[in-house]
Design brief:
The structure is a single chain. The chain is an alpha+beta fold. About 30% of the residues lie in helices and about 20% in strands. The protein is built from 3 helices and 4 strands. A hairpin with a 2-residue loop joins strand 2 and strand 3. The longest helix has 22 residues. The protein is globular and about 40 Å long.
């Protein structure tokens, strides 16, 4: 009798374990089919801006314009970047740009440019490494770029 009891307990444990594992090994139901856009549907439009655009929307457009200019081989100097953004609809009066040259007249390693958009700054940078950008809050002094910037007087 003592021998049959451990066997019965073992069988019960194996049955419980098998039942528990059965729940873990069943396949999940196939996901419901999703509808895909029709082949003739219009592709999504590139970002644009309006005066009511959010900072995220304006940043997406800023990045698209500036990156497109650099990727197309356009000049990476400050004036070219400012002119490109103005042509795309950004307000020149809301922009800042750093100098294209160092204090001893050599070409700057990088040029930064920005557009103040509400309480945020759309900031871009060109350098030998290419183009980069970010969306950042406006600085405490109301500007976007740290350090000396040059007049945008053209």
């Amino acid at each position: 009798m003592s021998r049959s009891r451990p066997v019965a307990l073992r069988l019960a444990a194996v049955a419980l374990l098998a039942a528990a594992l059965t729940g873990c090994t069943t396949e999940a139901p196939a996901p419901a089919p999703t509808t895909s856009p029709a082949a003739s549907a219009e592709p999504s439009a590139d970002p644009t801006i309006t005066p009511d655009s959010t900072s995220d929307e304006a940043y997406a457009y800023f990045d698209l314009v500036a990156r497109g200019h650099v990727d197309a081989g356009g000049p990476k100097d400050g004036r070219a970047m400012v002119d490109t953004l103005v042509a795309a609809g950004f307000d020149k009066a809301a922009m800042e740009v750093t100098s294209d040259s160092t204090s001893i007249g050599r070409a700057a390693d990088s040029v930064q440019f920005s557009v103040l958009w509400g309480s945020d700054c759309l900031i871009g940078q060109t350098s030998g490494a290419g183009y980069s950008s970010q969306l950042a809050p406006v600085l405490g002094n109301g500007s976007c770029l740290v350090g000396t910037t040059r007049a945008i007087d053209w």
